[in-house]
Design goal:
There is one protein chain. With 103 residues, this protein is of the alpha+beta class. Helices cover 24% and strands 33% of the residues. The relative contact order is 0.34. It is globular and about 45 Å long. The model has no long low-confidence stretch (mean pLDDT 85).
Length: 103
């Protein structure tokens, strides 16, 4: 198992939700609020004037638990030119040693 983590701007939440729900490899995902802090916030077109002054971007962290074999196909679809989120964020993939339901 792998954990695919995406960091995207909050403006793509609705479109990303639709896209993730349409992908058969994905059985569920989690959105968490995240604040992006960087050295050049003035280059972020989605920041309000207030956000630019304080230097943070309103982001979402998206965690998706996937089978190893599905990582590449999910990333390919998210990067595709007809994707709603292509070019809108960053990602990383982490190994998952164990997972399951708490009963």
């Amino acid at each position: 198992m792998k954990l695919l983590t995406l960091i995207v701007h909050t403006n793509v939440q609705e479109k990303l939700t639709e896209q993730l729900r349409s992908m058969e490899q994905i059985t569920g995902f989690t959105f968490s609020h995240a604040e992006g802090h960087g050295t050049e916030p003035e280059t972020d077109n989605y920041l309000s004037a207030h956000d630019a002054v304080i230097g943070l971007a309103p982001n979402l962290r998206v965690d998706i638990l996937l089978e190893d074999a599905n990582i590449d196909s999910v990333l390919t679809e998210l990067r595709s030119s007809d994707s709603n989120v292509s070019g809108q964020g960053i990602y990383w993939v982490s190994p998952v040693e164990q997972g399951g339901h708490l009963l």
